[in-house]
Design a protein that fits this description.
This protein is mainly alpha-helical. The protein has ten helices and two strands; from the N terminus they run αααβαααβαααα. The chain has one domain. 60% of the residues lie in helices and 2% in strands. The longest helix has 29 residues. Bound molecules: zinc ion (2 copies).
């Protein structure tokens, strides 16, 4: 169930609330990402300069992303697209877990599709950033933002055809996704060796994993964990060697670096 106070909002007020919440999450996560980049300077991933005006370009992408996502979520809530109704911690946890897994599957296919010649036009904006920053995560074209909106709204719609989903479980996942996406594009490696093993990366990637996607293009399409890349054979074998190099305080000096 959507909380009653939310259900009573007009279109304009709903849009304002969704935008305010997304902007707040974006600012908080970006501050955290930039703080990580300062605190962990000794674990920089790429020692390669940003392009001229990169932050400004990425900020524009964030405005595009937040506008599309706000419009999509507002419409979904006002039109009652998703069947909410499950309440309580257990239902919240199940909805969160379903979104967590569902989005990884959905995103791998969306991302892989956007790397085909026909759809690359949608994805070039995100790849303008060869070295990433916390602002890179949401720096996308309007077309790519629509793809993300399909995941954020279409997945819970699909789930709710089977059983009602938890509003707070869904909101919790969107917050988690946003934080992970933004902080995860920081150009430093905070992952501890215990969390960077092959076993652990079934659940969450080391930051270098997606950094390599921006540097090299044709692999590492996963969101959050290596799961889908491992299943579909799009994982590069040399990322653990590069991880070791980075945490030893030797950042990658060029986008073309390879490990053994
Ligand atoms: Zn890509
Ligand atoms: Zn990226």
């Amino acid at each position: 169930m959507i909380p009653d106070a939310l259900g009573a909002l007009s279109w304009a007020h709903m849009a304002l609330l969704v935008a305010a919440a997304w902007i707040a999450a974006t600012v908080l996560a970006s501050v955290q990402g930039f703080a990580l980049e300062r605190l962990l300077r000794a674990r920089k991933i790429f020692d390669v300069p940003l392009f001229d005006g990169q932050y400004r370009f990425e900020l524009a992408g964030n405005v595009v992303f937040i506008t599309v996502i706000t419009a999509s979520i507002t419409a979904a809530l006002k039109l009652g697209v998703i069947r909410f109704g499950a309440t309580g911690w257990l239902a919240g946890g199940v909805t969160f877990a379903a979104m967590l897994l569902g989005f990884q599957v959905f995103y791998w296919f969306l991302h892989r599709a956007m790397h085909t010649p026909a759809l690359l036009v949608l994805h070039r904006w995100h790849h303008r950033s060869q070295v990433t920053t916390p602002l890179t995560g949401q720096s996308v074209s309007p077309g790519e933002a629509v793809g993300w909106a399909v995941g954020f709204v279409g997945l819970p719609w699909l789930f709710s055809l089977i059983a009602p989903v938890s509003f707070w479980g869904w909101v919790g996942y969107l917050a988690f996704n946003t934080f992970g996406n933004i902080v995860g594009h920081s150009n430093v490696e905070p992952t501890t060796p215990a969390a960077a093993t092959r076993a652990a990366t079934w659940f969450a990637n080391a930051f270098v994993f997606h950094s390599l996607h921006h540097a090299r293009w044709n692999g590492h399409y996963s969101f959050q964990s290596a799961l889908m890349d491992r299943l579909f054979g799009t994982e590069w074998k040399d990322w653990p060697a590069l991880y070791e190099r980075i945490i030893a305080g030797k950042p990658l000096a060029s986008l073309k670096e390879h490990g053994e």
